[in-house]
Specification:
Length: about 80
């Protein structure tokens, strides 16, 4: 998985299956620290997009995932 996985399996969940807000926010904060250290790394952007999704911010999740895809393309020289 090239370090892309965001393991949210142990986080507390609501009856709907969504991660509890406080836990999602904490996960987001941890992943954001890694992203801030290397914001032009497509893998860090991918992980940040997943964290936005878990935190319920779908528009930022999509925007960040598009950036991850573009950065990955550039890394392959395309």
């Amino acid at each position: 998985d090239e370090g892309l996985a965001v393991d949210a399996s142990s986080l507390p969940k609501l009856p709907s299956g969504r991660i509890e807000r406080a836990a999602a926010d904490e996960l987001f904060a941890q992943i954001k620290v890694d992203w801030e250290a290397d914001p032009d790394n497509w893998k860090q952007n991918f992980r940040l997009a997943r964290a936005y999704d878990y935190a319920g911010d779908r528009s930022r999740a999509r925007e960040t995932m598009r950036r991850a895809v573009e950065l990955e393309r550039r890394s392959r020289g395309k």
